């Protein structure tokens, strides 16, 4: 059965997470992705931890495996004239180009959108940067370097995460990269749809800073409407809401409506709380979560196991679940039923279990699961297939240090 993006050719000049995650999402859905890497070293993620060694002494980077399945690797020296020309020729044969280097780097090499679109007007060119790259939308931070933690800090997420009185907290996942990759993949599919109508591609500018602000929209909207700055550990609008400590772990709960508040009070055998003064609205309850109401609720949870609290609150129709770690997730029967973890072959480690596509499509049920490429593994194959190069020409390019 054909995948939705079968036949779409993607050229990706990418490192680390944001670009590779974007191209992997496209590859998972059938796009043919050529990953362009620097000869000798490749994507810097290839050196990332954890590094796993097989019985033969060969090592593989778990960091690299997370974002690079279903791709082919081409090593190309873009400092050489011949390397840049090959890149131009490949771009002329591609539908999509993805890059996540500093703004202007490819343009300085004659490989920017304007340069490549002259030979391929239908090219969809997606650039993922820290602070944006499209002319007309350049702010004072445009040339700053950025990693995920910088985007989370400046974009507002870290300011609202963590305990009251504690330090700002990184969320433990590279949302600036992952969500930016998702945004770019979404924008690419929109641009491809539009190209089917107009015949023309376009330039796509995705900024990690913008992406994180989009994820932090609740706090931005609260300030815009009320001049209130949301603070860590102090929820002003809803309660109970948060992780609550049980006798053997934690559960997460949100009581979003007054109907749910009544159900919660019944579930904890305190129906008297439902209409008690100071507890008849979300903001009222939120004000008292650091006082008498919080003590009552915390006391109830502390007398339950996570399983007991979850079962009792679920029986009342409330949204609740245990706080799980990675081991819990890997062993979760629901994750197994969803077939979310997929086995991906690897030439060094044999088979690795990775998180697969996070959505299901009735017309395309099986995920593609091909190995992440070895560095330069597909040089000959790509140049022969896309550009018609002979074995001799590929050997010459290798001898010249172009590949």
Spans of at least 5 consecutive residues whose pLDDT stays below 50 are none
**What is the assigned CATH homologous superfamily of the largest domain?**
Crotonobetainyl-coa:carnitine coa-transferase, domain 1
The overall pLDDT average reads 96
Distance between the termini: 35 Å
CATH class of the largest domain: Alpha Beta
Q: Provide the structure class.
A: alpha/beta
Summarize the structure in words.
This protein is of the alpha/beta class. It has 2 domains: 9-215 and 373-399, Crotonobetainyl-coa:carnitine coa-transferase, domain 1 (Rossmann fold, 3-Layer(aba) Sandwich), CATH 3.40.50.10540; 241-327, formyl-coa transferase, domain 3 (2-Layer Sandwich), CATH 3.30.1540. Helix content is 39%, strand content 15%. It contains 18 helices and 13 strands. The chain has helices at 18-28, 62-65, 81-92, 105-108, 113-119, 148-154, 157-160, 175-198, 208-215, 217-226, 258-267, 282-288, 292-302, 306-315, 326-330, 333-338, 379-387, 391-399; strands at 9-13, 32-37, 51-53, 59-61, 71-75, 96-99, 124-129, 203-207, 241-245, 250-254, 320-322, 341-346, 350-355. The strands form 4 sheets. It has a 6-stranded parallel β-sheet, with helices on both faces. A hairpin with a 4-residue loop joins strand 9 and strand 10 (250-254). Helix 8 packs across helix 9. It is elongated, with a radius of gyration of 25 Å.
């Amino acid at each position: 059965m054909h995948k939705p993006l079968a036949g779409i050719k993607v050229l990706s000049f990418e490192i680390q997470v944001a670009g590779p995650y974007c191209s992997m999402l496209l590859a998972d859905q059938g796009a043919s992705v050529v990953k362009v890497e620097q000869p000798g070293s490749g994507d810097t993620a290839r050196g990332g931890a954890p590094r796993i060694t097989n019985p033969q002494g060969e090592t593989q980077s778990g960091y690299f495996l997370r974002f690079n399945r279903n791709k082919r690797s081409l090593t190309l020296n873009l400092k050489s004239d011949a390397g840049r020309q090959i890149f131009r020729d490949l771009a002329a044969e591609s539908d999509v180009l993805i890059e996540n280097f500093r703004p202007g780097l490819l343009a300085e090499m004659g490989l920017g959108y304007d340069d490549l679109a002259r030979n391929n007007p239908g090219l969809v060119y997606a650039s993922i940067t820290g602070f944006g790259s499209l002319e007309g939308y350049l702010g004072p931070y445009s040339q700053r370097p950025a990693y995920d933690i910088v985007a989370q800090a400046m974009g507002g997420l870290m300011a609202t995460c963590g305990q009251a009185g504690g330090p700002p907290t990184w969320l433990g996942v590279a949302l600036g990269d992952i969500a930016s990759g998702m945004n770019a993949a979404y924008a690419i599919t929109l641009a491809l749809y539009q190209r089917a109508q107009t015949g023309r591609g376009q330039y796509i500018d995705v900024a990690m800073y913008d992406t994180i602000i989009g994820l932090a929209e609740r706090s931005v909207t609260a300030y815009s409407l009320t001049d209130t700055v949301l603070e860590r550990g102090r929820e002003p609008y809803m309660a109970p809401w948060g992780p609550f400590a049980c006798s053997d772990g934690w559960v997460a709960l949100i009581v979003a409506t007054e109907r749910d508040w009544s159900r919660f009070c019944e579930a904890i055998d305190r129906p008297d709380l439902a209409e008690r003064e100071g507890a008849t609205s979300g903001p009222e309850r939120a004000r008292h979560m650091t006082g008498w109401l919080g003590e009552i609720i915390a006391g109830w949870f502390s007398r339950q196991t996570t399983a007991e609290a979850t079962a009792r609150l679920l029986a009342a129709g409330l949204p609740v679940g245990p706080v799980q770690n990675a081991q819990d997730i890997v062993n979760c029967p629901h994750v197994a039923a969803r077939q979310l973890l997929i086995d991906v072959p690897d030439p060094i480690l044999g088979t690795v279990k990775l998180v697969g596509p996070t959505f299901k499509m009735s017309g395309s049920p099986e995920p593609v699961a091909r190995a992440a490429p070895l560095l330069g593994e597909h040089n000959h194959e790509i140049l022969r297939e896309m550009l018609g190069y002979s074995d001799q020409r590929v050997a010459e390019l290798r001898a010249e240090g172009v590949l």
